[in-house]
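Reference record:
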Amino acid sequence: MNQHKESRRISMPVVLPAVLPVVLPIVALAITFLLARVCVAQNPPLTPGQQMMKTYAGSDDTETFLNEPKVREELKALLGDELPHLLDNLNVKGSIDLIGGQLSVDGNAPHMGTEEEGVVCVSIYTLEVSAAILSGGTITVYSRPADYTNLPLCVKDWITQGNSGHVDRMTQPKNVRVAGKK
């Protein structure tokens, strides 16, 4: 017996062209939204310390840096009556350096290098402020860490330079060999 099964075709109206103008903008909007979220996740907003680093590292705008509200408040809290002394000792200064995660300003009182000097260091991670004054042969450090071991590298490096009278910046130490190419 030859049984023939009839195949049935179900015919459906084609609605795709009619729906496309409505669906396409919605899909495009959804994709745009998802991409925007991915971009924000990859480029999160800068932290206050990162913003400060971006603004000041390498800059000569030391006055604005030292007057940043967080910096100035912390300097007042740490130094109290010694703040004017520090600022006098930063009268002659260079640009703002970035040393070991710290923004740093150092300098000296006019015509008083190696005698009256100062430094301010600000962590780009925590905005913690440290400062030091060289005066009368003594270095006084103003910092939240109360022990030398935990002082920021920025302060310790400045102390090393101050204690050497900056000689190591000008004269090659005996244990240093320079292997430059000619």
Remarks:
- Residues 10 and 16 are 17 Å apart (CA to CA).
- The mean pLDDT is 86.
